[in-house]
Amino acid sequence: MIVPLTAYLVVGAILFAIGVYTVIAQRAAVMILMGIEVLLNAIGLNIIAFWRFTAPTDYSAQIFAILVITIGAVEMAIGLALVMLLYRQRQTVEVDAYAELKR
Amino acid sequence: MTALLLAIPLLPLLAAMAALCVGRRVPWGGGEFVVIAVALSLILLIFNPDGANLSATWFESGGFRLTIGLEVTRLTWFVAMIVASTALGVGIYSLGYMAERPDRPRFFAELGLFVGAMLTLVLSSSLVLLFAAWELVGLASYLLISFDYAKAGAPQAAAKAFLMTRIGDVGLLLGWLLALATIGTTDIDALIGAIGTDRIDSYAITVIAFLVLAGAIGKSAQLPLTGWLPDAMIGPTPVSALLHSATMVAAGVFLVLRLYPLFEAAPAALVALFWIGAATALVAGLIATAEVDLKRILAWSTASQLGEMMIALGLAGPLAASFHLAAHAAFKSTLFLAAGAVQEETGTRALDRLGGLIRAMPFTGAVFLVGALALAGVPPLSGFWSEETILAAAAQSGVATAFLIIALVLLAGIYVGRATTATFFGGRRPTQMGEPGWPMCAGMGLLALAAVALGWILAGQLGNILPFPVEPEAPTAWRLLAVAAVIVGFTFGVWRGLAPAFGSLPAKFGRGLMAATEAPGIWAMQCARLLDPIEDALDSVARFIAAAARAMASAAHSAECRFDVGAKRTAGGIWRLARDTERVEVLGFGRGGDALAAGIAGSSERLRTLQAGQLYLYTLALFVWTAAALVAGGLMLWL
Question: Do A102 and B619 touch (CB under 8 A)?
C-alpha cells in the first residue's frame, strides 16, 4: 500500500502544531528549545514529502533537508549554551523570570 | 676678508644711524660712533689686500646686466685711505667743534652718511652703485651745508650746491646709461676691458668720456659749475673741511682717475679736461687773491687746486693728479680746521676784523701756517712734492703749460700768504680768546702732521702704490723756478696782507662769475616758480574739494541723525513686536507643546503595556502575525 502525500502532510502539520504549542505553552527554556526542534523536523518532513512525491529526480531538496537538520543541531548547541549561562546567572531556566526589558 | 670689505662703507653709515637714534643720550652726541666707525674702516682698509672683490648681479633684463659690488684696487685703496683718514681727523675735530650744539646728533648722522657714501663711491666696482653713492654724497652735502637752516643764506647755498652739481650729474647719468647700452653691463672693469676691442667704438668712448666729464666738473666745482663751492662755506667748518678735501670735490677727480683708460682712449676729452682745469685754476686763483673772507679764500683756492689736478689729468699725468689729491686733502682740511677754530674763537672770518691771532692761539696759528706753507708748495712740505710732479707732467708737454703751473704756484703763494698774514700776524685786534679744546687741536694736529709728512713719504713710493706710470722728474731749471715762484708769491702775499693783491678787479670778476654761474640755478628756480600758479590752482582745487567734502560730510551727518531717529523708532517697534511674540509663544505654543507632550507620554504609556515581557506572548504574536499574513496573502492570491 502506498502512503499518500496527504498523510505525510497531516503528520507534518500535527508535528508543527505540537511544536507551536510547546514553544508557546512551555515555561522552561529547554522545553522551548525542544519545541523549536519539533518545528524544524515538521518542516523537514514536509520538504522530504514534497520531494518524494513531486520531483524525486532532483536532489536539491535532500540537500535542503540536510541543511535544516544541521541548522537545528547548531541552533540547539547555541541555545543550550545560552540556557546554561542564564541558569548560572539566575539559578533558573523559567523564561518568565527573564523580564529585565519590561520595567 | 671680502666680507670685511663690505664693512668699510657700512660702518660709517651704521654709525650715522646710531648717532641719529641714541645721539642725545651719549656724551659726545653720537660723534664718538662716527669717529670709531671711521677709525675701524681705516683699519679694515689697511688690512684689506689689493684685489679684494665683492660683486653681485643686481638684476638682468633684456641683455643688460646691472651689477653692484665693492672692489679694492690700488687706486681705490689709495683714495679710500685719503677719504677715511681725512674723515677721521675731521671727525675728531668736530667732536670739539660741535660740543656746545644741542642738535649735533643730526650733524654726526649726516657726517657719517657723507663719509659712508663717499667710501661706497670710491670702492664701488659698478657704475650704477657709483652713481647711487655719487647722488648720496650730493644729498649729504646738501644736508650738511644747510645744517644751520635758520642762518640766512644757508638753505639757498645748499640748494645752489645741490642744483649745480645736479647739472653735472645728468651728464654722469647719461654717461653710464650709454656705457650700459653699449657694453651691456655696469661693471667698471668690463667697461675698461672693452676699450680697444670692437665691442665699443671710439665715438661712443668719446661721448661717454665727455658725459662723465660733465659729472666730474659739477662735483669738483670746475668752470662753469664753480659757483656753488664758495657759497657752501656757510655750512659748519668741519663740513667745509671734509667737503673741500676728501669727500665731495675729490669725487670728481676720483671719477676721472677711476675711468682714466676711458679718457686716454678719448683724447678730445683730455684736451677739454686740460682747458677746463686751466681756466678754473687761473680764474679761481685770481679771485682768491682779492677775497676778504678767510673761508672763501680757501674755497676759491680749492677750486684752483682742483683745476690743477684736472690740468695734470689732461696732461696724461694721473699719478701727479692723485698725488696732489692726497696732498691737497691733507693741507686743505688742515687749513679749514684752523680757520674754523679761528671763527669759533673770534666769531668772524672777515680778514679785516682779524689779525695778530698768533699770540692768542699759537697752536692754531702754527697749524694754519703749516697748511699754508704746504699749499704754497714750500719744500719739504707735501704741497711741494705734489706740485713738483704736476710740474714734471707739464714740463713734458711744453713750455707754456709749465709756465701755467708756475703762474698757478705764484697765485697760490699770494693768496695763502695774504690769508696767513691778515689772520695771524699784524696788529692784534680782538682780545680775550684762547686755544680751542683738545679734540679740535687733536684733529687739526693729526691732519697738519699729514700735511707735513705725506709729501716725502709718498714722493718715491707712489709709483709702487698706484698703477699709473711715473713721470720723469722735471728739469732742474723748472724746479728752481717753481721754488722761486713760491717764495716770491708768498712774500708778495704776506706783504700785501689784507689788501687785494691785484686790486679789486678779480673780486669784481669773482662776483660776475658767481652771478653768471648762478644763472642755471636761477633758471631752474624760475622754472620752479613758473609752476607756482599751477600749484596755486591745484591748491585751490584741493581746497574746493576739501570744502565740498566737508559740506557733504555735514549733510551726511544730518541725514544720519534723521536716520538715527528713524532707526530708534523702528527698533522700538521691533522690540515691542518681539515682546508680543514672546508672550504668544509662552501662552500659546508653550502650553500647546506641553499638552502635546503629555498626550504622547500617556499614549506611549498605554502602548507600553503591549510589551508584556513574557516570551510566550511574543512567540504567540509571531505565529499569529505570520498566520494572518499567510491568510491575507492566500486570500489575495485566491481572489
Answer: no
